[in-house]
Amino acid sequence: MSSHPDPFLTMHAASIDVDRRRRTLLTAAGAAAMGGLLPSAYAQGSWPSKAVRFVVPFAPGGSSEIVARSTAAELSKTLGQSVFVDNKPGAAGNIAMQEVARSDDQHTVILGHIGTLAVNPFIFEKLPYDPNKDFKPVSLLAKVPSLYVVHPDVPVKNLRELVAYAKSRPGKLSYGSAGNGSAGHLAFEYLKMTSDMFMLHVPYRGTGPMMQDLLAGRLDAAAVGAAALLQFIKAGKVRCIATGSTTRLPQLPDVPTVAEQGYPGFEMTQWYGMLAPSTMKQEHIDKLAVETAKAVKSPDAMARLQGDAAEAIGGTPAQFAQFIAAEQTRWQKVLKRAGVKPD
What we know:
Layout: H1 7-44, E1 52-56, H2 63-78, E2 83-87, H3 94-101, E3 108-113, H4 114-123, E4 135-150, H5 159-168, E5 174-177, H6 183-195, E6 200-203, H7 207-216, E7 221-225, H8 226-234, E8 239-243, E9 269-277, H9 282-296, H10 299-307, E10 311-312, H11 317-338
Helix pairs in contact: 2-9, 2-10, 4-11, 6-11
């Protein structure tokens, strides 16, 4: 019997050894790859697992846009997913509110507003959503003060003089707003009720057309959010006689508040907060609430908001819920007295 190894058997053994080493390497590589994927897989189980849609029930532009985009930009940095703003205007915000109320994707939220939460429930005979049952408050984001202005031809320099002037000319002065039930309409009706004066309301379809008539002198007065008015006040095209804020604005330090001019406790601000559909899981809302409260208080967001004369709030869900309830109580009385009806 030959003592030399069989060449065929030697080659076969070598081939088996190579296959074993190859399988070992592939197994190790696979394990390493799986190890690298495991954190990602676990991360996908956390919330949010995809982009968050932040619906705004108004057309682009104005204070709502600034508040929503400032908040979304900061949340995108901390949530680990992008947060994008989706404008859905129409029907005084009812279209967007109805859509989000029915959303169950766990990644859709909406910008709540004085109109959709504290006005619409009392001026529409039937709403396609329930502001208290279909949504969960997340956080009150910001307040934007209403400014009370008159055309320069109106011979008054402050609120006291306007009240006296209007009472001496009942029914002869007019004020404009962006429409029935708009924030400007509410602001002036609240002032009328508080001061016991009367001025004729002229509703428009939007702040833009109303401002054109005010600047042209076809209207005597208006109440508008600070963002839309500051440039015209500084240019002398309208005269600001009072602010609806609780303290004077840094941008208008010489203009007293309504409260300072004889009506203590008066406050008129447009406000914006974040709401989630009632179907969103509570643990998601809890996380979102913490991050949202921090987002509006971040230096970048506060810089954007202050440029719009807006006050960053950033409260808890419970605080926002209490605020909404108080606003609903307050505005129900004003709306009933003013007989406000939707356009």
